[in-house]
Each structure stands twice: as structure tokens, then as C-alpha cells.
Amino acid sequence: MNNLNKNIQIVRTLKSIMDSIKKTITNHFESMGLTASQSVLVGILAHENHDLGLKMSDLSKKMGLSNSTISGIVDRVEKLGIIERERSDKDRRVVYVKLTEKFKKNALSNRTEIEKIFQEILKKVDPDDLEKILSGLTTLDKIFKEYKT
């Protein structure tokens, strides 16, 4: 197999792995009563981790959806007590969305549950293969980080 074919195969394999990880995490969030879109929204807010939250317009951009679509998703997740809206003190037209304190307290538990799922998946892998996987992924991560600079 030539280098071009190997490069394409690496990209396809990574996409397949990312899809599998996304599906596993989405299934976990579905057990909490969240749809895929809702879990993505919660994930973005958790990743950003701003005390103030994110503006609705920023959420729209990050998710690639219209403001009205985001508003509907936020409505449903807000009813579940996972997020809350706050109007800006400076400009009442600006609405921030952030995770509730209650959800933040439970987030560590959720992350632990997701980690356990991945541990369960990987526990059957031979230790030598795990070492090869980790070495290869570490190398790939380093290559991409060096490319950015």
C-alpha cells in the first residue's frame, strides 16, 4: 500500500473511531433523556466551561444551526434542569446559556460513567496491543500538534 492510500486509510479509521466514540457517548446521554443534538449542546457548554455561559448566537455558530433551532433545543434541555438562560445586564437582547450548578455537580459522575464504559470496551484488549494503540495515537497526536505550529 502506498503512502497516499495509507494516509486515506488513517483518516477513514480515525473517522470510524470518532463515530464509535460519539455513538457510545450519545447512547449514554440518551439514557439521561437527551437527544443527540441536546447532548452536543450540553457537551459544548461543558467543554467551554464559562461561568457566564455562551451566547445563543455563539451556540448557533458552534453547532451550525439557526438561532431558532438552537432556541428550541435550549427550551427542551432547560425543562430538564440541565441548563439555564440568563439575560445580559448590559444588553437585554443578549441571552447566555450555561449549565446549572446541579448538573455540574452530577457531571463528574457522568464522566466517570462514560470512562467506565470505555474501560469495559478496552479491558478485553491484549496489553501489548493496548501499548501499540497508545503509542500510535500519541505519535499521531504529536504530529498534528506540530502541524498546527
Provide a descriptive summary of the structure in words.
By secondary structure, this protein is mainly α. The chain has 3 domains: 1-31; 37-99, Arc Repressor Mutant, subunit A (Orthogonal Bundle), CATH 1.10.10.10; 101-149. It contains 6 helices and 3 strands; from the N terminus they run ααβααββαα. The chain has helices at residues 3-31, 36-48, 56-63, 67-79, 101-122, 127-148; strands at residues 54-55, 83-87, 95-99. A hairpin with a 7-residue loop joins strand 2 and strand 3. Helix 3 (56-63) packs across helix 4 (67-79). It is globular and about 60 Å long.
Please name the defining characteristics of this protein.
mainly alpha; Arc Repressor Mutant, subunit A; 3 domains; three-stranded antiparallel β-sheet
CATH-defined topology of the largest domain: Arc Repressor Mutant, subunit A
Radius of gyration: 19 Å
Name the strands of the widest sheet in spatial order: 1-3-2
Q: Overall pLDDT, averaged?
A: 88
Distance between the termini: 30 Å
Count of distinct structural domains = 3
Estimate the helix proportion, in percent: over 70%
> What structural category characterises the helix and strand content?
mainly alpha
